[in-house]
Design goal:
Length: about 150
């Protein structure tokens, strides 16, 4: 990966829908070589996909909580992770070193909806020993651009 690839990645992170013509002009290439580089970045797994960024509050999911999960034992890690993948309202999940074991970012309609999700879904995830949650007041930096 060279400086041109890095420039392409930087631009695509800012606007994944930019046309190849506009992208080529921004990074100082003609369209065909720019296209080839994009395809190679995709093929090599550096670019893993493209997606729309949705304003959660505009689709009725304006409540956000961070939930820390501690498991009873490590034997249920894979079952816990598989179950988390199936819960649509868990939009981010990280396995952590130390205690707690996981950090889950959960969206809900409001506090009442979150309580139902917590009681009916999160508590029942495989191997859960303890859950602790905190409500997100405001997102300061939600969609970070990876420095390339």
């Amino acid at each position: 990966m060279d400086d041109l690839d890095r420039a392409i990645l930087a631009e695509l992170q800012l606007d994944g829908r930019i046309s190849a013509t506009a992208l080529a002009a921004k990074v100082g290439l003609s369209v065909a070589p720019c296209h080839r580089r994009i395809r190679e970045l995709e093929r090599s797994g550096i670019i893993t996909g493209y997606q729309a960024v949705i304003a959660a509050d505009r689709v009725g999911l304006g409540f956000e909580a961070l939930v820390f999960a501690t498991l009873k034992n490590r034997a249920e890690l894979k079952d816990f992770e598989a179950a988390v993948e199936e819960v649509d309202l868990i939009v981010d999940a990280q396995r952590l070193f130390g205690d707690p074991d996981f950090l889950l970012r959960v969206l809900a309609e409001d506090l009442s909806h979150f309580q139902r999700v917590y009681d009916d879904v999160l508590v029942g995830l495989p191997g859960v020993e303890k859950l602790t949650s905190t409500i997100v007041m405001r997102n300061i930096k939600e969609r970070a651009v990876i420095p390339v």
